[in-house]
């Protein structure tokens, strides 16, 4: 069985080292943890006397950081801070614990910045590709209020919940996407390989062609004779949209259109309301003022169309008009959300009402996602029927006329 040397931290914060045998590095870490220690480094001992660090190399430095990695890091981060271990020392331990090379590199940089006097928020903000704006602003809220450990606990809930919601939405959309891809492929096969056989038949027979047939002939001509022009135009269009969507106006247009989608729009709107209420409640519990909370939420709501309304909202808050009254003129905030905020302000229980609203819209999102799965099926069937029906009309209408012409000539 392989031998491992380890460095660990006791509950009192002192460092200890030791050697043990285990089947793998993960098993070694588990054995160290069972001793009541926090492992900071686990290295496998080579037979020649040297040591090799358990973990990946620099080749995987730019691998994606999954939400599960961030969730696990946040839980470990909070646990060690709760044990009274200093931030820098905690980060040093966790950079040796994490399996993800990109996350490890970010933690090394964050620890270095904090040693040089940077705030935790600024250090995390430099790695926005790993830690979202919401994550960084929650760290900021914890630093400002002095309740970082509590804020991390609430942050774990938010990250886990949003990961679950996104996973449910992706799961609900998997089948429709597969069907749409198959439908597009089938359409191109019919246009490029099946329909040309009928084109020559119709032209030789001299029958008048109805509109569906002429449309299909036009599509076939474009795809066969102008594909060298169409492909660059389509690729350039997608690339241009991707670049434009990164601009302020592009994000605003995209998110506005998403909220107007027939089925998905309501899901996105309810998810935004749930996120707004949940984050606002956490910021209120952390001692952040309403004005500062609105500023933080503006950058973390996740929808540019809703975030754009916070600029006007901040101006009205500065005039001392409360929160519910300015929200009444906001386009995407539901009457229920506004009413619950108004009741919370009047009763002095804004935090509790926001938590209730967040729970309500969380349930609404879950219900809407399940309902969306039921609604998408009929929509896909209708779309498939429309495509097949259009192709059938393009083929059979001229055939019917051809048969009638043949019978009249007999």
Characterization of this structure:
With 410 residues, this protein is of the alpha+beta class. It folds into 3 domains: 3-54; 60-131, Type II secretion system (T2SS), domain F (Receptor-associated Protein, Up-down Bundle); 145-410, no CATH class. Helix content is 72%, strand content 6%. It contains 17 helices and 4 strands. It has a 4-stranded antiparallel beta sheet with strand order 2-1-3-4. Strand 3 and strand 4 form a beta hairpin. The chain starts with a strand and ends with a helix.
Low-confidence stretches: 47-60
Number of domains: 3
Percent of residues in helices comes to: over 70%
**Biggest β-sheet strands, sense, barrel:** 4 strands, antiparallel
Care to count the β-strands?
4
H-E order = EEHEEHHHHHHHHHHHHHHHH
Residue fraction in strands: 5-15%
Q: Indicate the structural class.
A: alpha+beta
Cα-to-Cα separation, first versus last residue? 92 Å
| Arrangement of strands in the largest sheet | 2-1-3-4
Radius of gyration from the alpha-carbon trace, in angstroms:
30 Å
Mean pLDDT: 80
Shape: extended
Number of helices: 17
